[in-house]
Amino acid sequence: MNQKNLELDNNIFYRLLFLFVFIFSSECYSQEIDSLSKYEFSELASKFYKSENNSLKAFAYASSYLEKAKKNTDSTKIADGFYFLSYLVSNLSNKKKEEDYIAYNDSIIKYTKNLKNNDFYPSYAYYGKGNYYYTKRQYFNSIDNYLSAFYSVHNNEYLKNSLKYSIGLLKIRYGENNEALKLFKEVSQFYESKKETNNESYLMVLFALGDVHLRNKNIDSSYFYYDLGYRKSEKIKSQDWKPYFVLGKGIIEFSKLKYISAIDSISKSYKKLIEYKDLPNLTIADYFIGKSYDNLNKPKKAVLHFKKVDSLFNIINDLHPDLRDNYVYLINYYKSKNNTIAQLKYINQLLRLDSILNTNYKIINKKFYKEYETTKLINEKENLQVKLNKKAYLLEMIEYFVVFLIIFLSFIFRLIFKRNRKYKRIYNELIKDTKVVVKSNIKKDGKTGIPKGIEREILQKLVEFEKNNEFLKRDIKLYDLAKSMSTNSKYLSTVINFHKEKNFSNYLNDLRIEFIIKKLKTDNVLKKYTIEAIAKEIGFNSAESFSKTFYRGTGIYPSYYIKKLNEEQ
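RESULT FIELD:
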């Protein structure tokens, strides 16, 4: 069964706003640091801890402390400064802050790795990194740092015992229950020798002892520690650990085949686990409730809880190895229901879980102190590092792609902005003047070659043609229009080309566009028409040809023009 994660010793919830202020106020911040330089180290440290609820102030004191230490080239004080900064960001889930936390601890290690007989550094930095990687389910890195901390610690017995506890948790995950039991007993004896049995650290160890005895099937011993822990919790009025002891007792009931009692007990701890957002132990709770319902021959209720385990697995991307048969049950259940889709889904989930278990567990199984320096483990570690480097390279490529995408989108947004500004300018011009200006492709040579009388007559008839809006008729042909004007199509085409500076088709379409621009300004009913309906209203055969002609003549589309008119109505 999972343990309640050992959290870092702090309670500051740093706000993301702080990073924004820090980056964009560096000059003012620098002045603040200068003003704090007059304080001694002890004063800055005191002010730092007194400002825990004001992250900006605390950061200023920590940074001033660090700058002062660097000027004095004092390695221990420099480490103190980085410790203060890591303390500030340790509870944040933001990726950048998590990277900062690791970077600060790496800096502590860099400045203190050669210190002799220091009870705090660099062991606490390794310990902090170990806890970080534990919560991220990166157990290989977690073990590595815990062991580095254990080998570097000197006379700090409290830290040594915290490390024993943390290593014991990992040993349980890899099935080394007897070795874990030995470590937990040493930790409990330490607290008992210090007469510090009325605190949560001791409760934490009692829970671990109950868990490891349960795994070794020592039911009576397990119940003893769970019950002792529950009574201690009530004595010191600690609500944090009570639900875990209730959960443990519920699993004991399950092992005694008392399934109804098991469901009742585990369910009592369930709400608190949700409140604590303790997803790993929620998977344990749902799993044993599901198993209890299965043994009570209530498969539908069992499946409901097994599916909850699956949902939690998708969130935390890890399950304890003991919970593997959660998917075996789901696969068999849906196989019995001939539900191939659900069966395939949970087969894929089981394959994914096995892959994670192979990575997180088998690679380190039975590889603690005794074999820590063996060639085999070192080779496995190097192989894992190669894989991690490949993953880091892939992430770097993704970051480059994201940067490119941001630049590309910025370019597109800029184009859209410029286009909208251009459209607005054209619209304002159209409101004042409906004239459509189209660049002419007709070359004038100074004369048409048509008798002057006939030319004047054609021009006069074109004036009448435009005045009477005859250009709005659909499918007007040059030949038919020439015939109605008692002339031939060649003369008519030549006059239009020479005097209108456009061919017959463009002449008709531009007249239609000028007409509709003016008409839409005053005709509120027409504004409600669809583009296709407006197109047919003024002689176009399709919305597409109307829109293209409108854009060619004005530089904007009719939809935009109508939209702006309606906005200003």
